[in-house]
Amino acid sequence: TSYFLVFKAFRLAFSEAKMIGVVPAMKARVMAMNFIQKNQKIAEFLDHPAGPFTIHFWAPTMKWGITFANIADLQKDPELLSVSQQSAVTLTGVIWTRYSTQITPINYNLMSVNMFMALTGGYQLFRIFTHTPKPKEIAAEEGK
Question: Where are the domains of the chain?
Answer without folding.
Answer: 1-47, 51-144
